[in-house]
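Hi X.,

You mentioned you wanted examples for the new student's onboarding notes, showing what a folding record looks like when two proteins sit in one file. Here is a clean example. The first protein comes first, with its sequence line followed by its structure tokens.
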Amino acid sequence: MSGRMILSGYLKLAYNLIRPVFLLIPLAYFLIGALSTFASPALLSLSIFWFFRQLAKFVIFTFALSHYSLTSYLAVFLASLSGCNVNTYVDSRESDKYAYWKDYHNPIVEGIASPKDVLHLSIASAILSIIVGFMISFLFVIIILLGHIFSVTYSYKPRLKGKAPLDIVWNTIGLATLPFIAGYIIYLESPEGFSLSTFLLSAVYDTLYPSEISSGHVLLIIYIIGKSFPLNLFLGSNLMGAAFYTLTVTLDYEADKSSGLKTLAISLGKKRCLLLGVILALMGGATMFNAMMSNIQFTLTFLSFLFILVWALLNPNRSRLWASIKLIALLLMACFLSEILMFL
């Protein structure tokens, strides 16, 4: 066997264990939560000012690449990797036996990884995520532990993945709600996030009212940072996460049905499940309407997401569903990269 074939085999195994398309989702929600301070009512009203937008981009870029943030990304990545492989381990005995059409192949079913190896990888990733979490904060560790609980109860016992409508609730909490909250907590708890927010608001206030800045105003700024939770963005993004789940569960329709699972797609049927996804996406867009009106890129991202869902709904065959999931993953990547390039 040539070196190229060996390398190709290792890369395929890594892809099937890591499942980058699905690992991207919790990481994206973590970053959205971390930067959601800029979508709070206290700051959103200032987005009309060019200097505020440039300053906000500087703060975002600085925080996103700080040591504290990079450590947090690692913890979320490890927790997500653990969750993916719990799912891989359990699905190898059920639904993935019938899912040969995917471009993701269960490495246990294919015989390139043993159940014990995948289980050990999941446990090791979970332990490492908790250890790294303690380097950040105790509250962050609690969020990580909750994530593991939701992951195990969803994929293993009581296997809520196959008990609609709990499957969509559990999946959304695990992949969207908890990462968002973790990101929000990290931003406010980290020295970089809190000091950068204080600096940002102080700079804006000092520019608008140069003769009135005082210690009292600084205290008011600190209060605003702590109390302005972006509820609309939180609810809207979770509704979008639930809409995304309708795509993934519809993709697994045949395999899940063959293994006797009662998922949302099997309970409703493919088209009604995807129609629910479109409705959830529209509800999410309505909830985040003010944020979209202040950011054309945000609006375009939402409309693209909605278009992909409708495109999948019109003809929910396997290839189109899988293409839709990949397009949404690419859409998320393009959105974040464009923000970085605009800053540079």
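Then the second protein repeats the pattern, sequence line and then tokens:
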Amino acid sequence: MRAHPLAVLAGRAARREGQARMFFLWLVVVFVLGIWAGSVINYCFYRLPLEKSLFWPGPRCAHCLRPIRWYDNMPLLSYALLRGRCRSCGGRISLRHPVVELLTGLLFVGLFYAEIGHNVLGLPYLQMHRADIAAGNIPAVAWAVFGCHAVLASFLLLTSLCDLDDMAIPLPITLTGTLVGLACSVLFPWPFPDAGQALPPVSGFVPPRLPTGLYPWPVWYPLPSWLPRGSPQLGLATGLAGTLAGMMVIRLVRFTYGMARGIEGLGVGDADLMMMAGAFVGWQPIVLACFVAAFPGLLFGIAQLLRHGNQPLPFGPSLALGVVLTLWLWPLLGDSEALRLVFFDPGFLGSIVGSGVAFLLLAGLLFRFLLGTPPKAESRP
């Protein structure tokens, strides 16, 4: 006996509703993980710029210096229950604590929803398992993809907060992030998570479209015999190339513009930030991210010029946004033949770099001619 069509439709609707509830439950779990990560970010933000230990002494009230009990240190919840005041002395707790925790929680939810729920990175592995993911059965590989980018986002948020507050990015943060990024590159080498895909043969001057992975492209194309796909040494080479590319591009911009203008436009901390991000995403995206960051930097610069006049602009948040935008737009950018021509032709890439250096020199000299030489060059740490 065949089931009534209305009963079949009702059953399908019930299954879809159950799947949506399961995925929503995972979003709640990710949000909780995010607010706890935000609590750690707050803890590091208040200690590392002052060169304080993360392990001793424990969390204390900024007013009475009494230890904060564990149940008064719960993200968001403790602030709400205590109404933003210390239990011991009644001193006001900075609103930055719950704001950063909430922002990190929403950031984690957005990452999970976009990268796992909707596969904005275009990973074939996630596309094949989209039915399982929609049903709430998240594969371990998907958690690995999300985990790597959630850690990167946490480091980017921490460095941005430090740059906004102190105009400086502590080296311990970027150095730790670089080591974590290199560890991720070794554990999840290209083309993870799509290791079953074979490299296409070389055909002509422009290489064909490459299989997608957690790292958009490998460090070289075609791969040499001592760097087979999916090998830890390939992952390490990709991560190291990313660190060097991110650091050298920013340092080149800093040196070239500073030599022509007479004042440093970027700080060493900005180069360290891109060194850290390059360890996570590889060298091609980090090079492009340096240029993408100019657009939010321009918007932030105009806003700051209107509000505060000619004041130094922290460029770390713009670089962080550039990294995230480049990573999410890479499925569109990486499929461009023109972009592959730039990254896989050393001569063309060299001409691009040379043109960029010449442009920075001319821009620096033009600004020096129009605005004059600053009386004293101030460098950002």
